[in-house]
């Protein structure tokens, strides 16, 4: 983000943020390109004319160790690596580069076994237990020689998931339809939602197109699915048909999380943002149904987005909005989707925030979060985000509203210890703008207590100074931290957190 010679950094940040807020939901949202989903599109040859561009793009994403994906999140790497191997296999004799890529990928997977020796954590990628077995089948049919052994626990979990799916008979726009390529077979046109795709998933849609290729009477549905994939490709801004994100459209998710960031940083009523934020708030409020709200109006409602929307809307929410959140309550805890097998720390943190915004207590989620705090003060292992900095910041924000000062203090101490020498924060090999913004948010929560504020003030200043020079959100590997089938970056969301942190970190706090 470059500043003009006549404007301050904060003026420029405000201008960029105004434009971003006005564009929320446009084009179904902006999402980083996905190796797994793009490999699936190539695997099923959806766009034959784009092969010559998709293959080099996939090769460019391979890491030096032979695998695909972020090295600091090892369990998120098997799926994109195996999908790339299967997709590139037919082209392995075309060039030495493709052959070497396949050999490197196989060697990488052989070295992955150690990461699967322990029990499965809560933060495995979305649908992995369904997707890996199907891909392993396909790899075996190609004679790739990938060992199934390390994935035994994952395969067993997938069998449990398939049993639940079989009982539910998922419809279009359901959570299960998002991973249709891992369990589906019959390509019913009823699986396509109004976006034209299956489950808001490019990979599932590509698999559906492949399964329907010889079916009579599906010409219109197939045309809609192909058009969906072209529009999903546009959402990555890469410019290659078939290079697609891991989830799309995400219009309501984008809208909810950007406005939630502004709420968290106390910027919704900023005099230079209110006129663009309020129409978005009113639109979001109108979209909140008695059943809740989902990532788009065509996808099933979920407890996490419903929580953040209620917390964001505050007094603008309908009087009975909290009843929508109660639909996701199970034994005092809060789920994201029905029949989920792993709980979410941040969903419960956001539910606490939503309840606090309505003057209600949330003793069970608070107890759960307190129990999950690590001895070093962090919260780790959330199913929707791979960075402990995000998870810890969201929990600190929730617990600070509940007055849980001892736990908040230990969390802040963990953040202080993790701050880099240059002032930034990052869970991987380098600090990132988004993760530094999450830390800044948590440090701002310390303002409610004099002791905590004194402890956090110096770190907050260093974080602010680092962000002033390092606030770009790009497509680098370290920016891919949200957990879907693959790690991804919802670009407008992360940019809003960074811009919000910049604006909320102006020296006015010190006055």
SSE map:
Blueprint: H1 9-22, H2 35-43, H3 51-61, H4 78-88, H5 96-110, H6 128-141, H7 152-168, H8 202-211, H9 219-234, H10 251-264, H11 274-287, H12 303-313, H13 321-326, E1 329-330, E2 333-334, H14 345-357, H15 363-371, H16 388-401, H17 405-418, H18 433-445, H19 450-469, E3 482-483, E4 487-488, H20 491-504
Antiparallel strand pairs: 1-2, 3-4
- The name CATH uses for the topology of the largest domain is Glycosyltransferase
What is the number of E strands?
A: 4
Global morphology? globular
As a whole number of angstroms, the C-alpha radius of gyration is 22 Å
Low-confidence stretches: 507-511
For the record, give the distance between the C-alpha atoms at the N and C termini, rounded to a whole number.
27 Å
> What is the mean pLDDT?
93
Count of all domains? 2
Short précis:
This protein is mainly alpha-helical and 511 residues long. Helices cover 51% and strands 2% of the residues. The chain has 2 domains: 9-18 and 250-506, Glycosyltransferase (Alpha/alpha barrel), CATH 1.50.10.20; 32-234, Glycosyltransferase.
Written overview of the protein:
There is one protein chain. The chain is mainly alpha-helical. It has 2 domains: 9-18 and 250-506, Alpha/alpha barrel (Glycosyltransferase), CATH 1.50.10.20; 32-234, Glycosyltransferase, CATH 1.50.10. The protein has helices spanning 9-22, 35-43, 51-61, 78-88, 96-110, 128-141, 152-168, 202-211, 219-234, 251-264, 274-287, 303-313, 321-326, 345-357, 363-371, 388-401, 405-418, 433-445, 450-469, 491-504, and strands at residues 329-330, 333-334, 482-483, 487-488. The strands form 2 sheets. It has a two-stranded antiparallel sheet with strand order 1-2. It has a two-stranded antiparallel sheet with strand order 3-4. A hairpin with a 2-residue loop joins strand 1 (329-330) and strand 2. The longest helix is centred in the C-terminal third of the chain and has 20 residues, at 450-469. It starts with 8 loop residues before the first helix and ends in a 7-residue tail after the last helix. The relative contact order is 0.12.
């Amino acid at each position: 983000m470059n500043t003009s010679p006549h404007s301050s950094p904060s003026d420029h940040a405000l201008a960029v943020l105004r434009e971003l807020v006005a564009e929320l939901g446009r084009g179904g949202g902006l999402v980083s390109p996905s190796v797994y989903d793009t490999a699936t599109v190539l695997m099923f040859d959806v766009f034959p004319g784009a092969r010559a561009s998709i293959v080099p793009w996939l090769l460019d994403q391979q890491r030096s160790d032979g695998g695909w994906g972020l090295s600091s999140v090892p369990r998120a790497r098997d799926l994109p690596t195996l999908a790339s191997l299967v997709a590139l296999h037919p082209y392995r004799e075309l060039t030495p580069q493709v052959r070497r890529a396949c050999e490197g990928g196989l060697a990488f997977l052989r070295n992955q076994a150690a990461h699967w020796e322990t029990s499965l954590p809560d933060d495995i990628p979305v649908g992995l237990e369904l997707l890996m077995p199907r891909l392993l089948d396909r790899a075996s049919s190609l004679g790739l020689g990938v060992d199934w052994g390390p994935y035994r626990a994952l395969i067993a979990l997938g069998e449990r998931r398939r049993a639940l799916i079989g009982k539910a008979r998922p419809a279009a726009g359901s959570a299960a339809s998002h991973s249709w390529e891992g369990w589906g077979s019959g390509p019913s046109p009823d699986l396509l939602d109004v976006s034209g795709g299956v489950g808001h998933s490019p990979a599932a849609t590509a698999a559906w197109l492949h399964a329907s290729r010889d079916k009579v009477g599906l010409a219109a549905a197939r045309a809609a699915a192909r058009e969906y994939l072209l529009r999903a490709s546009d959402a990555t801004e890469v410019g290659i048909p078939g290079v697609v994100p891991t989830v799309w459209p995400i219009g309501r998710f984008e809208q909810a999380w950007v406005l939630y960031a502004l709420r968290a940083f106390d910027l919704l009523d900023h005099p230079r943002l209110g006129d663009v934020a309020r129409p978005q708030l009113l639109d979001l409020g109108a979209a909140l149904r008695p059943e809740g709200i989902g990532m788009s109006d065509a996808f099933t409602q979920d407890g996490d987005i419903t929580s953040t929307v209620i917390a964001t809307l505050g007094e603008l929410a309908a009087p009975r909005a909290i009843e929508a959140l109660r639909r996701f309550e199970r034994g005092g805890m809060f789920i994201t989707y029905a029949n989920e097998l792993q709980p979410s720390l941040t969903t419960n943190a956001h539910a606490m925030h939503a309840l606090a915004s309505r003057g209600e207590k949330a003793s069970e989620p608070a107890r759960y979060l307190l129990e999950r705090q690590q001895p070093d003060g962090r919260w780790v292992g959330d199913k929707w985000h791979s960075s402990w900095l995000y998870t810890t910041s969201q929990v600190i924000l929730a617990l600070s509203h509940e007055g849980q000062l001892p736990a908040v203090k230990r969390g802040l101490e963990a953040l202080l210890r993790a701050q880099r020498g240059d002032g930034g924060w990052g869970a991987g090999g380098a600090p990132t703008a988004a993760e530094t913004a999450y830390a800044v948010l948590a440090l701002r929560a310390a303002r409610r207590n004099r002791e905590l504020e004194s402890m956090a003030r110096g770190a907050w200043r260093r974080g602010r100074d680092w962000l002033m020079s390092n606030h770009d959100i790009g497509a680098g590997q370290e920016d891919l931290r949200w957990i879907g089938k693959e790690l991804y970056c919802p670009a407008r969301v992360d940019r809003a957190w960074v811009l919000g942190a910049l604006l909320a970190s102006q020296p006015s706090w010190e006055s």
